[in-house]
Amino acid sequence: MSSKDINLLKAALEIEYVAVASYEGAIALGMLSGETVETARTFQAHHGHHIAKIKEAITNLGAEPPKRLPNEEYLKKMPKDKLSSEKNVIKFAIKLEREAAILMLQAVGELEDRKLAMTAASISGDEAMHWAVLRQAIGLFPVPVSFIPFSLEEKYEVEFGEEEIEEGKKAGKGEEIGEGEQMKGMEGEQ
Fold first, then answer.
1. Which of 74, 80, 120, 149 could form a Cys-Cys staple with 154, CB 3.0–4.6 A?
2. What is the pTM assigned to this prediction?
């Protein structure tokens, strides 16, 4: 049993708990509308799958997974402005998904059990997909970089500004994305 692996998995589990609570809270408060609600429910389900897999891994390593607190406990720790509008909720979710993608990627290199590292890599990829979809939902270019950053401190983008969209256009990455629009020049590509 590796205490390092257990600690990494417990930290990952806490991140997943915050993500589920955030999506559940935003839905319950009526802060999301239309397709955004369905997207949040889908991502919430993904995080539920991550939770189950991480809890199973912790248990298999002979440890007790941390218990999930009631949503209210997580939500009261969040700044109130994060749940004040649909756009703010999405911006907060973007931040969470980005952090989760980065932290799970870091775990890949640190986990001693290589099978667990593969699971962490898979979860990191899923978090990155969430991050991209949410960016697109508020009109940002969904994939602003070629690699997931290696640390939370790595700064490579304008957080939520028009400059980033313009830079994407200049680099030939596509056009600003409107609701229901595909990126010009990317049709048919996966």
1. 149
2. 0.78
SS3 state of residue 1: coil
Residue listed under structure tokens 């897999």: 53
- Would you call 22 helix, strand, or coil by DSSP? helix
Q: Dihedrals φ, ψ of 70, to 5°?
A: -60, 150
Distance, CA of 78 to CA of 72 (rounded, Å)? 10
Task: Please state the domain extents for the chain.
Answer: 3-170
What's the pLDDT tens digit per position in 93-111?
999 999 999 999 999 999 9
Q: What is the largest CA-CA distance in the chain?
A: 52
pLDDT, tens digit, 9 for 90 and up, residues 50-89: 999 999 999 999 999 999 999 889 888 877 777 788 999 9
- Cα–Cα distance measured from residue 72 to residue 173, given in angstroms and rounded to the nearest whole number: 40
Write the single-letter amino acid at 137. A
| Angle made by CA atoms 83, 158, 74, in degrees to the nearest 5 | 25
> Residue 72 in contact with residue 81, Cβ under 8 Å?
no
How far is the C-alpha of 63 from the C-alpha of 72, rounded, in Å? 26
CATH of domain 3-170: 1.20.1260.10
Distance CA 128, CA 32 (A): 21
